[in-house]
Design a protein that fits this description.
The structure holds 2 protein chains of 2 kinds. Chain A is mainly α. Chain A contains 14 helices and 2 strands. In chain A, a hairpin with a 2-residue loop joins β1 and β2. Chain A is globular and about 85 Å long. Chain B is of the alpha/beta class. The chains are: A mainly alpha, B alpha/beta. The interface between A and B is medium-sized, with 26 and 34 residues.
Chain lengths: 328, 331
């Protein structure tokens, strides 16, 4: 088990190196930082001085190593636009995005899985048909439209929920949370639903098709022939066998939710990383873009590791290499 | 009174192009402790008959007629929840492919214990102790350690032993074994059949042994039912059916087994193929392939009838009115 984790971590190193190389290359190829920093008027001497000061006269490889050292120390440079350290900016925004994304993912799982099980078990019931039709809307409507529709109904017409922002937040160390105040929770509902709806329908459809598949297998038939109650067959035997693909998709989708919450954050003016990133793109604020890229890569690598560990927990066949000798 | 009494069972599969009759008017009984072999080609309806008895036919297939009695109680009309208590507890089942019949995510011990807890109301400890005893009984070495192993850690033959333990662990009176050895290595088949036979004799369990392997039947069964195109062609004591088949189809089946005593140039075979369920011929379903068919065979469908021996056969040759032909047949 430990060997497995270590090997996966070692595999993650080249991935992260590649991503940081791409991030670093952005500095060299997307705009010229020297020109940006010097502004309109400068002499050639000033330019050369700055180049030397920034270390830009060094070979590419040396610069890259220096960049890596800085990154490892948590130094991602200074935002061109905001003039503040990028690491601070991201840490400020990270809690908002993580809270939104995790709430959305949780919502998607807690509603999507039971709906998937239900529609898989009772294929022909009218409620299943309703679920499936509604899920089509979730899959096909673009996120921004859902967000705007929700704002229209619940914020504008009904006036129940706020249409933008994060509400009041409470600081716990550097982490600011909106989960502890009423206004923070209220502000979370609409964006979380908007962000989670697509994932929910995706998970529902996935669980449904996996359930249909598993219910046809011999071991489910055999479980029925053994006279086990439906409850045990459906939730103990069938659902557990659908989990491996569900975990995979949920993991990937969680990464996607965090990385691409941009649209939802824009619609709801949610002060998260997505909003920070979209503003950085608009202003060619390369240090933020580079840091964001690396952070998201790290996130995906971490999620993949967790997903792999969950496979191990769920499916004993994947463990067989470790149990060794006791088999066959 | 027979333990299992199947009367005029009929199973239909509605399709777009009309209703297929997979099992047509099948009647037979199994005595307590008896082994009834059911043979036939693929698609003859033997597996569906077995599935119908425990009411596990895949939809849209359905029981369209007939009755199933177990131990003097009619079970084909039981409500689903009561039927669930019959499955496993009173009728065990063994499936063909041991590689797919066990849930890959649970240890074999858990699957055994779960079955016994549901049916026998045992506590966790007692169920585990009995699970170990069952694994020992089906010949799993080091049962006390292997109980916590997962199915993929066993070979096919060992898994089928586990399946047999699962089928028998709630002490049913009848086991329906559907091709229990077909998916196994030939070298393992005999062991598994011998094990099944010994266990059922020890526990007094009756067996409905569905197979297309006449060798297995000859070795194991007390009586045998030969199925053809959804109907029973012949039924009787196994010796009699093997040595003196009364139905031309059974005769063809037996003739196709090559004798060990002498060399044969070419294996005997029955010309043609079993008809599809969509176009079963009028009269006797076997008549287009039968060398002894006569007018009546193409006109009327024969029911099982008495023959000159203990077998009963669905063949007009045994009808009193066609005695002349029958005499010719016997000669």
């Amino acid at each position: 088990m430990l060997a497995f984790i270590v090997s996966r971590l070692l595999q993650a190193i080249p991935v992260m190196l590649t991503v940081s190389l791409i991030s670093f290359a952005m500095f060299a190829y997307v705009g010229d930082p020297v020109t940006i920093m010097l502004g309109q008027d400068y002499t050639e001497a000033q330019r050369e001085a700055l180049v030397r000061e920034l270390g830009l006269d060094q070979p590419f490889f040396v610069q890259f190593v220096e960049f890596l050292q800085n990154v490892l120390r948590g130094d991602f440079g200074i935002s061109y636009r905001l003039g503040r350290p990028v690491a601070d900016l991201i840490l400020e925004r990270l809690p908002a995005t993580l809270e939104l994304a995790l709430t959305a993912a949780l919502l998607a799982l807690l509603i999507g899985v039971p709906m998937g099980v239900y529609t898989g078990l009772y294929r022909t019931s009218w409620l299943s048909r309703v679920f499936l039709s509604v899920s089509l809307i979730g899959v096909s409507l673009p996120t921004f439209l859902i967000g705007i529709l929700l704002i229209l109904v619940f914020a504008v017409i009904l006036g129940w929920l706020p249409s933008f922002g994060r509400g009041e937040t409470v600081a716990i160390g550097w982490w600011t949370t909106g989960l502890l105040t009423a206004s923070g929770l209220k502000a979370l509902i609409l964006p979380a639903v908007t962000l989670g709806l697509y994932q929910m329908t995706l998970i529902m459809r996935l669980v449904r098709s996996e359930m249909l598949e598993v219910l046809r297998t011999d071991y489910i038939k055999f479980a029925r022939a053994r006279g086990l109650p439906d409850r045990i067959i459906h939730f103990g035997h069938a659902l557990k066998n659908t989990l491996v693909p569900v975990i995979t998709i949920t993991g990937l989708q969680l990464g996607a939710i965090i990385a691409f919450a941009i649209v939802t954050e824009t619609v709801f003016q949610w002060p998260g990383m997505g909003l920070l990133f979209i503003q950085a793109v608009a202003n060619a604020d390369i240090p933020i873009m580079a840091a964001y890229l690396m952070l998201i890569a790290l996130l995906f690598v971490t999620i993949n590791l967790i997903v792999d560990l969950l496979y191990y927990a769920v499916d004993p066949r994947l463990r067989s290499g470790l149990v060794a000798s006791s088999g066959r | 009174m027979p333990l299992l009494d199947v009367r005029n069972l009929r199973v239909e599969f509605p399709t777009r192009r009309g209703t297929l009759v997979a099992v047509d008017d099948v009647s037979f009984g199994i005595e307590p402790g008896e082994v009834l072999g059911v043979v036939g080609e693929s698609g003859a309806g033997k597996s569906i008959t077995g599935a119908a008895i425990i009411r596990l036919i895949e939809p849209p297939g359905r029981i369209a007629g007939g009755e199933v009695w177990l131990d003097g109680r009619r079970i084909d009309t039981l409500p689903p929840e009561r039927m669930r208590n019959v499955r496993g507890r009173e009728i065990g089942a063994i499936f063909q492919d041991p590689l797919t019949t066990l849930n890959p995510l649970y240890t074999i011990g858990r699957q055994l214990a779960e079955t016994m807890r549901v049916h026998l109301g045992l506590g966790a400890k007692e169920a585990r102790a009995r699970a170990i005893r069952w694994l020992e009984e089906v010949g799993i070495p080091a049962a006390a350690e292997r109980i916590d192993a997962y199915p993929h850690q066993f070979s096919g033959g060992m898994r089928q032993r586990v399946v047999i333990a699962l089928a028998l662990c709630a002490e049913p009176k009848l086991v329906i074994a559907d091709e229990p050895t077909t998916a196994l290595d030939v070298s393992i088949q005999a062991q598994v059949v011998a094990l099944l036979k010994r266990l059922c004799r020890d526990h007094g369990t009756a067996v409905m042994l569905i197979t297309h392997d006449m060798g297995v039947i000859a070795e194991t069964a007390d009586r045998v039912a030969v199925m053809y195109a959804g109907r029973i062609a012949e039924i009787g004591p196994v010796r009699e059916v093997v040595k003196r088949p009364r139905h031309p189809y059974t005769e063809g089946l037996m003739g196709s087994i090559p004798p060990l005593s002498r060399r044969v140039r070419r294996l005997a075979q029955i010309e043609g193929a079993m008809p599809r369920l969509t176009d079963i011929p009028r009269g006797c379903a076997f008549n287009p392939r039968c060398l002894r068919a006569f007018d009546r065979c193409r006109r009327d469908r024969p029911e099982l009838m008495a023959t000159d021996g203990p077998n009963r056969a669905a063949c007009w040759l045994h009808d009193p009115s066609s005695r002349d032909l029958a005499r010719g047949y016997a000669a």
